């Protein structure tokens, strides 16, 4: 049985992805940093349906904690075949108001976490000549967003990391792909008021927000062993927004 590890999987896209992979018969490693109650609820939901899962607290922006996460995963299920780098944060701020602390936290959560987890998982993937890495970026990493410069830059960095790493590890049978979601109905967007949400829906050609489940299904596509000739790609799932 294959194992998937999804970072930041207590809520939103990460939770939907973990739940889908559990339904597909994977062993699931749920990772959370502060959302313990949500992670526990997801764990209970998966195991109640007969799935196999563990929940591990770790701040994956720190290498020591990322390594501990993978050690726990290996202890429970053996090697991780599929890594989904989903952990991340967002923040809306004028560029001139972004502090050094804001910038460092953004890049730590959104980029260094991807770097750390890839470094942790790749030795076993390279040894086994197989692996799937799927990174969650954003459409703002492709086109940029006003008042979200540090967020956009961090998500653009994830795309660059994806493309470069894909070339490096392809000879070892490992694919690395990226998903750039548009506006998705998740807790990350709960800070927007009703008028803003309505405006975003109007700007999206399909006329609605995306769902976490729609992103999860794309992750599953990239994770499939039949997708072995697809690597270094960024798939926009944004309802035609860009």
Strand count, sense and barrel status of the largest sheet are: 7 strands, parallel
| Global mean pLDDT | 96
CATH superfamily membership: NAD(P)-binding Rossmann-like Domain
Query: Can you identify the CATH class?
Result: Alpha Beta
Strand order of the largest sheet: 3-2-1-4-5-6-7
The CATH topology assignment is Rossmann fold
Radius of gyration: 17 Å
Low-confidence stretches: none
The number of helical segments is 8
Distance between the termini: 38 Å
DSSP summary, beta strand count:
7
Kindly state the percentage of residues in helix.
40-55%
Q: What's the architecture in CATH terms?
A: 3-Layer(aba) Sandwich
Helix-strand sequence? EHEHEHEHEHHEHHE
The oligomerization state is: single chain
From the helix content, strand content and strand pairing, which structural class follows? alpha/beta
Coarse morphology: globular
| Beta-strand content estimate | 15-25%
Number of domains: 1
List its salient traits.
242 residues, alpha/beta, Rossmann fold
Characterise the protein shown here.
The chain is an alpha/beta fold and about 240 residues long. It has a single domain (about 5-235), classed as Rossmann fold (3-Layer(aba) Sandwich), CATH 3.40.50.720. It contains eight helices and seven strands, in the order βαβαβαβαβααβααβ. It has helices spanning about 10-25, 35-50, 65-75, 100-130, 140-145, 150-170, 195-205, 210-225; strands at about 5, 25-30, 50-55, 80-85, 130-135, 175-180, 235. α1 runs parallel beside α2 (about 35-50), α1 packs across α8 and α4 (about 100-130) packs parallel to α6 (about 150-170). The protein is globular, with a radius of gyration of 17 Å.
């Amino acid at each position: 049985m294959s194992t998937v590890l999804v970072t930041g999987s207590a809520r939103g896209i990460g939770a939907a992805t973990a739940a889908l992979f559990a339904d597909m018969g994977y062993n699931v490693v749920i990772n959370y940093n502060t959302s313990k109650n949500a992670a526990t609820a997801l764990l209970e939901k998966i195991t109640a349906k007969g799935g196999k899962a563990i929940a591990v607290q770790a701040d994956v922006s720190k290498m020591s904690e990322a390594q501990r996460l993978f050690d726990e995963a290996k202890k429970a299920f053996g090697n991780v075949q599929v890594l989904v780098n989903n952990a991340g944060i967002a923040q809306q701020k004028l560029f001139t108001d972004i502090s050094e602390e804001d910038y460092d936290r953004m890049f730590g959560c959104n980029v260094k976490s991807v770097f750390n987890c890839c470094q942790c998982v790749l030795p076993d993937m390279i040894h086994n000549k197989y692996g799937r890495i799927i990174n969650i970026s954003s459409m703002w990493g492709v086109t940029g967003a006003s008042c979200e410069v540090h967020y956009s830059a961090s998500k653009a960095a994830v795309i660059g990391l994806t493309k470069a790493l894909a070339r490096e590890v392809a000879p070892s049978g490992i694919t690395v792909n990226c998903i750039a979601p548009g506006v998705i109905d998740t807790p990350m967007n709960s800070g927007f008021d009703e008028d803003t949400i309505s405006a975003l829906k109007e700007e999206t050609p399909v006329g609605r927000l995306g769902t976490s489940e729609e992103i999860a299904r794309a992750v599953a596509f990239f994770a499939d062993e039949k997708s072995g000739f697809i690597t270094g790609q960024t798939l926009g799932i944004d309802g035609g927004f860009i």
